[in-house]
């Protein structure tokens, strides 16, 4: 067994109605003025107001920034960071999916260390702890509440830059399954498959360890056994709880094992064509799994058994069975079959491939990959 390391530096509250503990958490952190980062969609359906009321009822002041968009940009980060400094807040609450949490992490960096978020692009360039942050996910998919990365779009380069540092891990996470029970079916599907991919890629990563494997396998069990039921009926409390916990465990897994070609390739797809992150990942997964099958050492069968329907006894497993099972899952959930269906154009494949190769996830992929391989994978997924 090779050497590995991990730590569990966060405080995580899980359970139906656990949002009510937010004032207690803020007071424990001696926060008298909190900066709430979220988006207009959650404001429109009343989720932001619910959090604001809970904060206010706890006797704590707040300032809100609600202009986060999918695939948030450096301009969004700069705008939010300026408001944070101006209002005098001492902590951050990030409410939403990965976009809100990515912005919150970036604001936390700039609030303490200044400059531009591009100054911290890459691995381990954040010099120390960021502003105390409480993450409240409203989707079961990103795992951002327990991951050490923030992904921000630099529009000047049409590029999704990544800041990776364990210093940007949120200090707290509040996981209330009630928050994901109002999601539209399409969002629940794309985010759910994204969470499953986090676990799959971490499990197949060359950096996988017994710790990350334990998290990934439990995540696959919970998500694989509940994703279809949750998309079918988001009011299903058991399925919602399983998805929320599974997404969290998948996030912990890839925080320590990294991901692979699926995520490396999906970021340029989102940057150039504005395809939602979860949708891009879901489309790419079967193609990348087929490519990585050459490197399989028995783990494909483990994954297959977590996600397949039925309990029939297998008479010999082949890696292509997993690929077909993923295709069937995507079809059941209404995920587009190809990148072309999502609006991706072939002429930008060379540029996307160059950007994908800059990702820190490429070296973690189980099969070695060069830029020509990535271009061919894009063409197959197209």
Automatic annotation (TrEMBL):
Keyword hit for Oxidoreductase: yes
Annotated Fe-containing alcohol dehydrogenase-like C-terminal domain residues: 189-382
Pfam family, one: Fe-ADH
Single annotated GO MF: alcohol dehydrogenase (NAD+) activity
Coiled coil: none
Domain Alcohol dehydrogenase iron-type/glycerol dehydrogenase GldA as annotated: residue spans: 9-177
Swiss-Prot/TrEMBL keywords: NAD, Oxidoreductase
Family label: Belongs to the iron-containing alcohol dehydrogenase family.
Protein name: Alcohol dehydrogenase
């Amino acid at each position: 067994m090779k050497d590995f390391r991990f730590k569990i530096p966060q405080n995580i509250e899980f359970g139906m109605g656990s949002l009510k503990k937010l004032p207690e958490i803020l007071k424990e952190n001696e926060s008298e003025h909190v900066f709430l980062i979220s988006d207009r969609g959650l404001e429109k359906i009343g989720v932001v107001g619910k959090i604001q009321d809970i904060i206010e009822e706890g006797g704590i002041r707040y300032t809100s920034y609600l202009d986060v968009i999918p695939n948030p940009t450096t301009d969004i980060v700069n705008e939010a960071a300026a408001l944070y400094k101006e209002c005098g807040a001492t902590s951050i609450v990030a409410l939403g999916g990965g976009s809100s949490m990515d912005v919150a992490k970036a604001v936390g960096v700039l609030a303490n260390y200044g400059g531009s978020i591009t100054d911290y692009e890459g691995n381990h360039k954040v010099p120390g702890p960021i502003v105390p942050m409480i993450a409240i996910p409203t989707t079961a998919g990103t795992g951002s509440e327990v991951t050490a990365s923030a992904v921000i779009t630099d529009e000047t380069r049409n590029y999704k830059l990544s800041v990776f540092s364990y210093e940007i891990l949120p200090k707290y996470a509040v996981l209330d399954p009630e928050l994901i029970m109002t999601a539209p079916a399409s969002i629940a599907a794309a985010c759910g498959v994204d969470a499953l991919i986090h676990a799959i890629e971490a499990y197949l990563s060359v950096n996988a360890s017994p710790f990350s494997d334990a998290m990934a396998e439990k995540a696959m069990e919970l998500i694989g056994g509940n994703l279809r039921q949750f998309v079918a009926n988001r009011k299903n409390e058991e399925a919602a709880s399983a998805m929320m916990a599974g997404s969290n465990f998948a996030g912990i897994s890839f925080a320590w094992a990294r991901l692979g070609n699926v995520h490396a390739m999906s970021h340029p797809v989102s940057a150039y064509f504005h395809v939602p992150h979860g949708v891009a990942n879901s489309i790419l997964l079967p193609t990348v799994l087929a490519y990585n099958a050459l490197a399989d050492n028995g783990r494909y069968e483990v994954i297959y058994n977590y996600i397949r329907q039925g309990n029939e006894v297998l008479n010999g497993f082949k890696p292509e069975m997993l690929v077909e099972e993923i295709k069937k899952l995507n079809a059941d959930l209404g995920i587009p079959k190809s990148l072309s269906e999502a609006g991706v154009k072939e002429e930008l494949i060379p540029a996307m491939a160059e950007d994908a190769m800059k990702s820190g996830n490429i070296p973690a992929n189980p099969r070695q990959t060069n830029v020509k391989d990535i271009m061919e994978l894009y063409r197959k997924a197209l």
